[in-house]
Amino acid sequence: MATKFYVVWQGRKPGVYQDWPSTLAQVDKFPGAKYKSFKTLPEAQAAFSGSVSGTAKRSSKTKAPAKNGIKTYSADEVSNLQADIKIFTDGACEPNPGQAGSGMAIYRNDEIHSLWYGLYNPQGTNNSAELNALHQALIKAQELLALQLSVVIFCDSKYAIQCITQWAQNWQRNGWKKSGGEIKNLDLIQAIFKLYQTLKGDIQILHVNGHVGVEGNELADRMSMYAVAQQQTDFTDYPQPINIQSILAMQNG
């Protein structure tokens, strides 16, 4: 039986739900309830955010995408999105170019589950660090999707998101060339794009601004800086138990 995803715009707790009983609990006997089913998670998330014509208005705190750009999600929207797993990614480079590292924070049912850091490169860039973090998030997402869990990835690099979800398709069509010069980080982009192509029907990569109060983004940021400080080349998990306040007190990027 095909999985359906449900958007609740008006109900006890608006959001995106992956099963009917959870949806019914939000709308049953709720005055003026407004909801609808969708075939894929990205369609449902787009509808909930207001990017589908005729749905809810965008929050005034959310920046609308420029033409051919991407939407930026507010902290409230990140919190309201319903998904089993939320993965936050970030990359850091001190200076840029210079020593680079990547970080990732994974939440399960909106509770911190694990933190990851590594991929230290003494001659990296901020963009390569962001791409590396996104690559690791997609690798982890592939594992989680196989367990029938819904996954959303949040990244604060528009460059990384657009490379993989928009620009790479045209670059591939043109023989991995672009007008106006070389494609930087090409090998990495090709590897990420290949993986993204297998997952894009079941996952969405969303943009958040850095340092605006999104806890997962802040934790991923600290992990990327920790990777640089530790010069950690492998991508490894941060020791449990996780003390969020102590980690947030670490150097930020």
UniProtKB/TrEMBL annotation:
Residues 81-229 form the RNase H type-1 domain. It catalyses: Endonucleolytic cleavage to 5'-phosphomonoester. Monomer. One of its GO terms (molecular function) is nucleic acid binding. Transmembrane segments: none annotated. It comes from Thiomicrorhabdus sediminis. InterPro entries: Ribosomal_bL9/RNase_H1_N, RNase_H, RNase_H1_euk, RNase_H1_N, RNase_H1_N_sf, RNaseH-like_sf, RNaseH_domain, RNaseH_sf. This is Ribonuclease H. It is an enzyme of class 3 (hydrolase). Belongs to the RNase H family. Endonuclease that specifically degrades the RNA of RNA-DNA hybrids. Keywords: Endonuclease, Hydrolase, Magnesium, Metal-binding, Nuclease. Its EC number is 3.1.26.4. The keyword Hydrolase applies. Its cofactor is Mg(2+). PROSITE patterns: RNASE_H_1.
